[in-house]
Amino acid sequence: MLKIFGGARSDHPMADLREAERLLRELPAGDAVRALDEINHWFESVRTEQQFRADHRVALALMLDEAAQAPARKLAREYLSTPRLSKQQENRLWTALHGFARNATLAFVGALEGFVTGAKGADELKGQLPGITVRALRALAAQMKWLHVRYGPVDPQLWRMAVGSYSLAESRRYARSSVAMYPGVPGESTPEQEFLRVVMLSASSPDSLLPLEIELCERLIGHFAPRFLLTSEPRGDTPYWIDLAASAPPLRHARPPPEVKSLRYFGAGEALSEIDALDRAIQATHEVPASVNLSGAYPAEQVLRVLEHLAAHWSPAPLERKHPRHRVKSRLTVAWGFDGVLDALSPGASLSFDASHLESWIAENVSAGGMGALVQQVKGDWLRVGALLALQPEGGENWLLGVVRRITRTRTGDAQVGIQTLARQPSPVALQVQAGDTVSLDTEPGILLAHAPSAQETDVMVRPGVHVAGHNLLFERGGRTMVLVPAGVEERGVDYERVRCRQLAREPG
Question: Could you report the per-residue pLDDT of 16-35, keeping only the tens digit for each?
């Protein structure tokens, strides 16, 4: 047993490092959830053990963090790649993954705070400070990512930990000291790079990305991190700032910062040109170059979409609104999901009408391109980026068709939602599939975005699997057969596809 505090002995199972190693070797290798649950248990147990010296706590935190890497990667892949997790499965995986990131954060940030306050054994940590800070900031980035995956609020205390950890690195002059992240894993990092990973994720508007895209965003940030820029003075290529003396996320220069010495300015730096080069390379080969390690295989189309998103948000030129926004306060009746929208437009059309698909939201601002709404006490787990909506303003009779583009959850359980309007007069249609000279006898429901039959181009919403490359879609309108010739899929959601089409009219006879 380890002797501490004047010879007193701890009876904690991890008081001896060799015994701790043995316990970690016995983690269930075939059950990643149980393994991560046990690691989280040990993190919490070590944190509450009063007799451990600061250096012993750090030694255990490093061991636990390293033991958690493999099961955490496995669970993250399962969580983000499995299309239809049950709510219970989803909760269990997210709780284990977020719990690990949270426990690692508390362990490493706690070690830094112990060093600052002179905890017993903290003097032994001087040579380890760069490595501890890198682990602390990496854990903070992971914790924030898992909160973003659920569009949840990020606790200001996390920002306090982030700026505090980095401030210590600056004050002790090791912010740019390179250390290996994990034993046996190629690549090094610095406290400055890890801090930039934290702030660049926040600056990348994760509230408008799907969960898998948030993961991909984090991976791309990791790839580009050595090219990011952090300065103490504003520059044209550092469009964001953060105050190291505050507990708040970074902001764009569009909101003037206070004139204080604790400000740091940051931006993508050379990563912007590298995004452009990577985009061109993927466009040319339809593959992600082997030199770009994203810790997993991602479809080229998905990588291109996230690269476009990052390029827009990392650009020194701020995004401009296409339409002016006006503040309002009015009720919205909302139907969600392909079937719910179909029934709102044509009651009974989906054959699965469910009145629970109707909700009442509050519109807070509107523009020609969409609206912002407050969702009070979100019900269920259907609300996500990409969800299809039918919206009827209070006092109106027509329904609008929209899609959720941004979600920010609040501590009270409410959500602020950004909605893009796709059509102001969506029209339900009964579609037949034409393959060559053969036309299906059965019909499939669809939602036409362009109401006018004279439109030469339109989008149509269909259930996944209805659109097949090379097949046309037919429907009857005003005594004529309308032919939709698909040109490609514009967007895919959980229960719909938005297909871009040329629209032709076939005269009777």
Answer: 999 999 999 999 989 999 99
Residue 486 DSSP code:
E
User: What's phi and psi for 430, nearest 5 deg?
Assistant: -100, 115
Out of 259-273, 326-340, 371-385, least confident range? 371-385
**Token pair listed for 494:** 């959980």
Whether residue 453 has pLDDT greater than 80: no
DSSP element (H, E) containing 248: none
Question: For 228-232, what is the mean pLDDT?
Answer: 96
**pTM metric for this prediction:** 0.85
Domain 326-423 and domain 427-506 have a common topology: yes
| CATH assignment, 427-506 | 2.40.10
Quick one: which of 236, 257, 235 has its CA closest to 245?
A: 257
Cβ atoms of 127 and 169 within 8 Å: the answer is no
Residue 335, classed as helix, strand or coil, is strand
Whether the Cβ atoms of residue 168 and residue 133 lie closer than 8 Å to each other: yes
Q: What are phi and psi of 298, to 5 degrees?
A: -125, 140
326-423, CATH topology level: Thrombin, subunit H (2.40.10)
Q: What residues have CB less than 8 Å from 123, skipping those under 6 apart?
A: none
- Give the pLDDT of residue 251: 93
Q: Phi and psi at residue 297, in whole multiples of 5°?
A: -95, 130
Residue 446 contacts residue 462 (beta carbons within 8 Å): yes
The answer to whether 432 and 473 have CB atoms below 8 angstroms apart is: yes
**Domain ranges for the chain:** 1-188, 326-423, 427-506
The CA-to-CA distance between both ends of the chain, in Å, stands at: 94
Q: What is the pLDDT of residue 1?
A: 38
Does 58 have pLDDT greater than 90?
yes
The packing angle between helices 300-314 and 211-224, to 10°, is 70
